[in-house]
Amino acid sequence: MKPKDDVQGLLENFWTAKNEAVDRLAASNNAGNGAQARNAKHMLSLTDFARQMFIDAGLDESEVLKNRAIPGYFRSSKNWDAVAMHKGQLVGVVELKSQVGSAGQGFTLTLNRS
């Protein structure tokens, strides 16, 4: 698949899952943006894509984990969407944030948490 097709598929998956979550949450009278963000299933294909980028760069599938906590300097642990290790050493982490509807606030929160 071409990179453009990869991105097109990611965007389609993102918006399909996001819209399904909105509909499902609206049906249960829980349609606020906070409920949508906590649902987060719309981010799964993006996490898979980020994980695959590490694998395509040469890491073994067993070295790239999804939704893992690792210790940090400012807190005892932090969950990351993708964690890449090589020979027991941390080589990369990815945290995804959906900025739909709250780009400024979400960016500020991300800076404060990191």
Describe this entry's structure for a reader:
The chain contains four helices and three strands; from the N terminus they run H-H-H-E-E-E-H. With 114 residues, the protein is α+β, with helices and mostly antiparallel strands. The chain has one domain (3-113). A three-stranded antiparallel β-sheet has the order 1-2-3, covered by helices on one side. A hairpin with a 7-residue loop joins strand 1 and strand 2 (78-86). It is flat, with a radius of gyration of 16 Å. The termini are far apart.
Q: Please indicate the count of domains.
A: 1
Would you report the number of β strands?
A: 3
State the distance separating the first and last CA atoms: 34 Å
What general outline do the C-alpha atoms trace? flat
Q: Can you give me a brief rundown of this structure?
A:
The protein is built from four helices and three strands.
What are the salient characteristics of this protein?
flat, three-stranded antiparallel sheet, 114 residues, 3 strands, alpha+beta
Q: Helices and strands in order, then pairings?
A:
Elements: H1 3-27, H2 33-39, H3 44-56, E1 64-70, E2 78-86, E3 89-94, H4 103-113
Helix pairs in contact: 1-3
